[in-house]
Amino acid sequence: MSIFTTIKTNVRDNLNDAAVINYSSSDVDESTQDAYDDIVAQTQCIIKKVTLNWTGDLSYYDFLTLVSDYLACVAIFNNVNNRWLYDDKTLNQFDLIRDDWEIAHGTPESWAALNYKYIAIFPKYATTSGTFDLYYWAIAPTVVDANTPLIATDFQHLLEKFTTADLLEQFEEYTKAANFWETYITEIEQFKERTKNIAGRDLLLLI
Amino acid sequence: MALFSTATITRFAQEAEDLFVKNHHCIIDRTALAIVANTHTYSLPSYLIDVRRITWKGLKIYPASHRGLRESQASLTGTSATPYNYIFDNIGQAQIRFFPIPSVTIASIGTNLYGSEIVNRVIVEFYRSSDYATFTIPSFFRKRLIKAYILKMCFSIEGRGQNLKASKYWHDKWNYYNETYGMLLEELINEPRHIILGPGGTSRDFNLRTLENNLKYDNIGIGVEKGE
Q1: B185 vs A116: CB contact, 8 Å cut-off?
Q2: Of the candidates A17, A61, A85, A204, which lies 20 to 30 Å from B170 by C-alpha distance?
Q3: How high is the ipTM of this complex?
Q4: What is the H or E stretch that residue A96 is in?
Q5: What are the sequence ranges of the domains in chain B?
Q6: Do residues B21 and B181 touch, judged by C-beta distance below 8 A?
């Protein structure tokens, strides 16, 4: 398990720039953050929870504004009645249930995504009442040198691959960069598969 | 002197965002129309790409075509307090026509269009193009995507900076990000999760690894177009 300082040192080794001559610290910092952002966004490997207030008469919650590191919704738990909201319907299916679902009042039962920003709740509370827990995929945190990346240990080297390739591109060393990208693109697919099938070995069939 | 001017870079940055939004409709906006009694046609914003949904005081009204209305032999001059169809097939002029013709006047408003004002207004929800400031593609990939396109285009234009080999490299990278993040938005973020067992009795709480190849799972529990 590496901390970001180690990862950045490895990147400089890859670039033969331990003396910090060709690549400034800010260049390396920025590329490392890009790498972290890309891996976390593509794999959705960070899930968080936040408690929010139900807002009266609100049909669509703008989670991108309400939650600073929001990427996408995983699940919603209503603390008022201690139930999970159903997540098996689309907005078109809401329309099939009733064509004025946006103004239907009641205890929330389902949610569906409008886009990367808004989540529709159906039905909605008429007045502000209680809270809900939002479980969400988060974007990558800001890189702090002393911290460990929130990425599976055996995939943390992807940060090095991305950062090295990204920095080689600065000097138009495309052939060299392509070697690092090849590893990155292959392995990030494996990491995506792992996050999707996490604990799959231990799951029981529920159909 | 820089190889590429700020104006050139800005132009390509905006072009990249426009292209992505054109390929993957992901920016959604709403507007409340100012309805005037006995007026059937209304203009929509110029940045509109396509209409997603129109509600009349909260009640969904449905799209129709000119041809569909002609075939129904319905009177085009009838009026009603609540239209039940709209026609939007004049995309060049960005106009919609309500049918029957509204017989009431309803004011416009700019706030709470996702909540308390739905019941009071005529709201058009639509896919829109980016304004490069407020309504943009998601920030978690915006920088990397746009950078690839800027470099692809800057290296391809005539001048001291032209480098066709580099342009090809960034072209491939732009395609990779365009496809990867387009798919992420369309298939992952917009699709129902199926984590919680719903009344329909389908969830995804089983081992996808062993089942995905054997079951067309996408066909279970999704009765309409995915992601809508």
Answers
A1: yes
A2: A17
A3: 0.90
A4: helix A91-97
A5: 6-24+136-189, 28-128
A6: no
